[in-house]
Amino acid sequence: MSEVIEKGKLAKKASYQIGICTTEEKNNALLKIADGLRANEKAILAANHLDIQAGREKGLSESLLDRVELTKERIHDIADAILQIIDLADPIGEVLETIEKDNGLKIVNTRVPIGVVGMIYEARPNVTVDAATLAIKTGNAIILRGSSSAIHSNLAIVKVIHEAMAESAVIPDSVQLIEDTSRETAGELFRLNDYLDVLIPRGGKNLIDTVVRESRVPVIETGAGNCHVFIDDTANFEMAKEITLNAKLQRPSVCNAIESLLIQSDWFDKYGNDLISSLIENGITVHGDERVFEEIPFVQPATEADWETEYLGLEISVKTVQDVYEAIDHINTYGTKHSEAIITEDENHAEVFKQKVDATTVYHNASTRFTDGFEFGFGAEIGISTQKLHARGPMGLKALTSNKFIVSGDGQIRE
Amino acid sequence: MSEVIEKGKLAKKASYQIGICTTEEKNNALLKIADGLRANEKAILAANHLDIQAGREKGLSESLLDRVELTKERIHDIADAILQIIDLADPIGEVLETIEKDNGLKIVNTRVPIGVVGMIYEARPNVTVDAATLAIKTGNAIILRGSSSAIHSNLAIVKVIHEAMAESAVIPDSVQLIEDTSRETAGELFRLNDYLDVLIPRGGKNLIDTVVRESRVPVIETGAGNCHVFIDDTANFEMAKEITLNAKLQRPSVCNAIESLLIQSDWFDKYGNDLISSLIENGITVHGDERVFEEIPFVQPATEADWETEYLGLEISVKTVQDVYEAIDHINTYGTKHSEAIITEDENHAEVFKQKVDATTVYHNASTRFTDGFEFGFGAEIGISTQKLHARGPMGLKALTSNKFIVSGDGQIRE
Questions:
Q1: Helix, strand or coil, per DSSP, at residue B362
Q2: Number of DSSP helices (H) and strands (E) in chain A, helices first
Q3: Using the beta-carbon criterion (under 8 Å), do A365 and B409 form an inter-chain contact?
Q4: What is the mean pLDDT of residues B214-220?
């Protein structure tokens, strides 16, 4: 039997046990894991060092190595995050609705764990802990398939998790790490419908596209963010500038950073030069439409491809538009339905934008950078869903739950 | 451009218009459709007659022809069902949660339409109306891909729907029927991610398996039901017999009918013969485990395959078990997680069964035949989801919705 199928079976079996653990039992296991990570800090750092060495030998980029690297401080942050998860309310068992029928049947729709969650992710070993602990809190078993670049770290972390769980009432088999990080094991997960209820990919566009294309297991698509700020004719200059710079520069590599700026043409007449110059002064390459290219120095001409590109770096596309309707059309055509902002003093335009833009999160006079489980107050985040089904936007604990109808009767039959 | 892509584009564009229609506008369109169906009854019946003729020539089974066939009465029932949908509350615009942050950001999570829903289904032309009207009520565009056996009926029905919508504020393009019912158009729908937000298959196991296996568009799996009744040691004989016969016989061809009966062995000693004889007297073929086969006349021996089989007809498998735990294990191993019942006077056993059985709906002392949107009081049903994501169990209007976070600020940026 292959490793994936074997661990799938173990996880499925374990899911029936963890699924009925009490909140106290699950929190107790989480506390032991947090303690275990701190106590085994040296072993984890030693394993992480092996990954970093191997990565250097393979010539991985510094930014990738940075994502793989753990430090004493990072391990303590990870352990602290577990304490936050412990403090969150347990969603399992929540009554979603109660229906009493005339025939005496009582139907109670109850929140239950999903069952077995699969996670395919890249580089960062903290995802191993985040995903495992969120799964434990919600009574799910989880199968983790990280990347080869962090395999030593992941093995060391899961060893600590298993040892901690062995001293708790939660069965260690509910956390499974696939040790074989070859392409074949990802493919096996795509076909693991018998044991897997959902597959969540976290990583770059290629990874997510592959999972969506090939998986037969239901997928929650996360990630890609071709986000826009639209500056309307009545926008306040200072606010527009601050939000644009923040949304682009505060952390350019993440999905809720903006990639494209739309400017109403009258506003552009007045402030376009000032705003775009400040972008360029901040080291950003600007790809402008014909008008922007012709009127502002140091601007590159934008091609059709620019409107679709998620640069994830110090680049931005800029387009002038006639009005809010043209902006909405452009966003709904080229955006990835992640986070979109309008800067305006016109409440009617703000309303139209909020209603018509198709995205997980729509902002009026605020930076797109707030689309995040922690910022929204969910306490923890398993990812940001960009699909319409199941969960949309930042996903907290509830995204890892399903429901069950429990019906009590005294002999009712259907006529 | 292929028909599917062309209609996908039209539906996507229409989705932005129907998505912001008011409840009154949508209900008005629905009323005109109901009137239109009644007024064009003759044209619809004539088209349906062509399907029935063609089906006879192709040698379709009588049960399939019955599902294709429309009558004056059926058309009136379909129109009446639309009036029920009009009476249901519109879920769109519902505020799901409001979050106020310390920095002054106000986050409102709002219920919105999914966007464009795809429906692949077999035979029954009433699904054309049900799906289109549920989509309209929830502000979604819909792409309908019915089967060739009902194409004349579907064309006539959609013509009436389009004519009715043309006299309303809801754009007719939000309902699209794929006229080419070849295998290729189904394949195109599987890859229509750019224009389609969800694909719902309704039909036999083959259809559903194909959609789950091949679709890159998120799927809501519906349907298969290998359902069980478990009779516990304390079960009342009369109640156990009535529920078993109802769950098997009231409509054997549907997904919430039972396919398998589990009997606690002490109860079997006392009542097994009476119960199973009554099944056989009702024309049911019984496939029994070793004990049932040896002790009861006219029983066939069950094979491993019987525990997995959804007969959808006058057959049942019967197994004796030691206790409720063995019953739960068997159900979680062989069931399709649809509807499962325990008959018992022991409240503890009922609790364990409700908690541990993994299914959309779990019954205590009632027939599995109640798993149904109408019976649950949802008023309408787009199908019964057997997956854990998005919607589980009978799906009403809310299953055709998603959510959007609307954030209002006054210049907030992320530090």
A1: strand
A2: 15, 16
A3: yes
A4: 91
Under DSSP, is residue B157 helix (H, G, I), strand (E, B) or coil?
A: helix
CA distance B209 to B304: 22
Q: What are phi and psi of A78, to 5 degrees?
A: -60, -45
Q: Where are the domains of chain A?
A: 3-221+387-408, 227-370
Residues from chain B contacting residue A225 (CB–CB below 8 Å)? none
Inform me whether the C-beta atom of residue A183 falls under 8 Å from chain B C-beta atoms: no
Region B145-156 average pLDDT: 96
Q: Where are the alpha helices (DSSP H) in B118-236?
A: 126-137, 151-166, 183-190, 205-214
Mean pLDDT of A132-161: 97
User: Residues B405-414: pLDDT tens digits?
Assistant: 999 999 999 9
Closest CA to A316 of A380, A406, A231: A231
DSSP secondary structure, A317-386, as one string: EEEEESSHHHHHHHHHHH--SSEEEEE-S-HHHHHHHHHH--SSEEEEEE-GGG-STTTTT-S--SEEE-
Q: Which residue has the tokens 């701190």?
A: A38
Residue A411 has pLDDT above 80, yes or no: yes
Taking CA atoms, A246 is separated from A115, A279, B230, in Å, by 40, 11, 61
pLDDT at B121 over 80: yes
Judged by CB atoms closer than 8 Å, whether chains meet at A404 and B369 is answered as no
Residues 279-338 of B with CB under 8 A from A: 332
Which ipTM score applies to this complex?
A: 0.92
Q: Which residues of chain B make contact with A101, given a CB cutoff of 8 A?
A: 375, 377
Distance from CA of B229 to the nearest CA of A (A): 13
> Which residue from B123, B101, B97, B124 is spatially nearest to B111, judged by alpha carbons?
B97
Residue of B nearest to A371 (CA): B405
| Top-level class of domain A227-370 | alpha beta
**Element (DSSP H or E) covering residue B408:** strand B401-412
Contact B212, B198 (CB under 8 A): no
Sort out which chain B residues have CB atoms less than 8 A from A352's CB and list them.
none
Protein fold of A3-221+387-408: Aldehyde Dehydrogenase; Chain A, domain 1 (3.40.605)
Alpha-carbon torsion, ordered A208, A211, A217, A221, to 10 deg: 10
CA distance B90 to B46: 35
